[in-house]
Amino acid sequence: MKNIMHLNAFLIHSPMNHTVGSWTHPDSTVGSSFAQPDMWQDVARTLERGKFDAIFFADQLATYGNYRARTDEALVHAVQFPVHDPTLLIPMLATVTERLGFAVTLSATYYPPYMAVRKLSTLDHLTKGRIGWNIVTSVHIGEAHNMGWENMIAHDARYERADEYMQVCHKLWQSWEADAVVADKTSGVYVDPSKVHPINHKGKWFSCPGISPVSPSPQGYPVLFQAGASGAGRDFCAKHAEAAFGVQLTPRAMKAYADDMRARVKNLGRDPASLKFIWGIQAIVGGTEEEARRKQRDINERVPVEGGLALLSGHTSHDLSQYDLDQPVEDIEIEGIRGLFEIFTKMYQSGDLGRDRLTMREVGKIYGATIGCPQIVGTPEQVADQMEAILDETGGHGFNITPSTMPGSITEFVDTVVPVLQKRGLHRTEYTGQTLREHLRQEACA
Ligand SMILES: Cc1cc2nc3c(=O)[nH]c(=O)nc-3n(C[C@H](O)[C@H](O)[C@H](O)COP(=O)(O)O)c2cc1C
Description:
The protein has helices at about 30-35, 35-50, 70-75, 85-95, 115-125, 140-145, 155-175, 230-240, 250-265, 290-300, 305-315, 340-350, 360-370, 380-395, 410-425, 435-440; strands at about 5-10, 55-60, 100-105, 130-135, 180-185, 190, 200, 205-210, 225, 245, 275-285, 375-380, 400. With about 450 residues, the protein is α/β, with parallel strands linked by helices. The strands form three sheets. An eight-stranded parallel beta barrel has the order 1-2-3-4-9-10-11-13, surrounded by eight helices. A two-stranded antiparallel sheet has the order 5-6. It has a two-stranded antiparallel ribbon with strand order 7-8. Helix 4 (about 85-95) runs parallel beside helix 5 (about 115-125) and helix 11 packs across helix 13 (about 360-370). The protein is globular and about 70 Å long. Bound molecules: flavin mononucleotide. Flavin mononucleotide binds near residues 227 and 245.
């Protein structure tokens, strides 16, 4: 019997998800409704009906302003902007669901660890154990500026700092013994002081004497996701994450990434099976293959090249307007998400996609369409076949599915592809656990 797939919806609290221009699609209402809770609550109910593990919220802390050294393209095309705080939306989604988890991106570079632990552990209580954390080190210079920093910390130093950050977080999560809360009205003791331990952390980057301000939450700590793709990012992921979020354009590249990650995990003396691989994809479903292809063309044609390049310039902290749109893309030394940019250089050079070099125009279109998540297109059966094949080929465990239209394509996936996966025993028909960690650890249908 095969393991079940873990399914998350890969969203962002913004009028645009990961498909630039998709908010203009007739099936998308997110452009006008994203700032209110109603649409998100409907989406959460739909995903819970489809027995998804979680919503996975991306996040970022600035307007993309690298392209042409201005923010105009990002503003005009709503390139992940405006971007509202996902941690404030989550309790409103938790009240209309019972099992759906919520993985949220929080920057280890810009949130002090004490504040991150406070936010995440409070959410874990409020959701009864349904919280995950996508640990990022942040990517673009605009975020540094908005936080009052003149420069970004250099790429590898960000990861060295994040490593100490995680030590602080784990110390805070362990600063309470499980039975420290007494709450005994007779004795008048709320917390037993002998069971709470100040962490007195003093390191290279952080100083934090305190105890966690939040009593132990249902999961103890959030489920840890990570999506670093560079060498330093992969080492960090191998050490800290329970699930790696990988964006790679082909199954072969996914497998190479997973093999590399498993080797890194093993080198650390950790069981390679303890790290799950969740692949970013976009599913485009039609009643027939032709209809699905038509939908794909319609979605991709809406992607404005300059919107895609504004997004990629932001993610790479590199102004891509300086290159000729119709010349092939060369290797470029960048500061931001190295791994993502390499998708467009090394991967195409590998010949996997039948092409040697892409032009910058093509890169803008592809990146703007899905930030490099492959589009899985076809009838519900064909989409299920391809998802199954990807997991077979890569030894992966599930998918972060980014919608093409919002909320239309999510409802369509739940109504058409989920039943096919369930029929094949590849997706749960009922939740067996309460917490997000229990969902992630579930291997087979009950
Ligand atoms: C698929 C994927 C999704 C990411 N999502 C976010 C995000 O939502 N917010 C963010 O600030 N960084 C995000 N990142 C950035 C990273 O997690 C990481 O901090 C950054 O990529 C720098 O590390 P790298 O060079 O190892 O990739 C994402 C990266 C990848 C590959």
